[in-house]
Amino acid sequence: MKLFGVSSILTSFALQSIWLEVAKANVCMMLYQMADNYLEYFIRQDNNELINSAAIREPTLTTWVYFDSRNYGTAEDITLPLEEVFAPDGTPLAAKFEGSLLMTWDHAREQMVVNASSTVELNSDHPQTLFNFLAYAMTDCVARGSTEYMLILSSHGSGMFGFGGDENVARRRRRLLQANQNIVNAVQSALGAVEGAPAKLDVLGFDAGLMQAVDTLDEYHNITKYYMASQAVEPGHGWAYNFLEPATNALEYAINFHDNFLQQTQGSDVHMTPKTLAIVDADLFIPFLNAWDALFLELSIKIANDKNVHTIMQRSRLNTLAFMGAIDTSDTNTPSAMDIGSFFETFRTMCSIDPNSEVETLMAAAETAYTAMFVSRGNGPGTPPASGMHILWPQRQVYERYDLSVIIESDSLAATGDAPNWINFLMTFYQAAAPEAVSEKSVCLQSIVSDLEATADGRLLLNPAIVGTDSGVIASSALAIRTDRIYVNYGIDLTFLLKGRLRHLKKTIPSMASANRTAINHPLKPNWENAQRRLQTETGDYFILFGGNVLGAFEGPEFVATWDKKFYFLGNSDSGELVYATDSKGGLKSIPVMYFARSTPITAADIPLGSTIERAMFLGGIFGFLTVSPSDAILSVISSYVLYTFDPVTRAFRETPTWAGGQITPVLFSELVVGDKVVTQLVGGFRSTIFPWGEDSDFGVLVMDAVKFISRIDALDSVKVEMRAYDNDVRGAVDFFSASLTSSELGGSTAKPPTAESPSTGPPTASPPTANAPTAGPPTDAPPVGDAPAAEPTSGSFGSRVMLWTALVFAPAVMFVLF
Question: Whole-angstrom Cα distance, residue 772 to residue 589?
Answer without folding.
Answer: 10
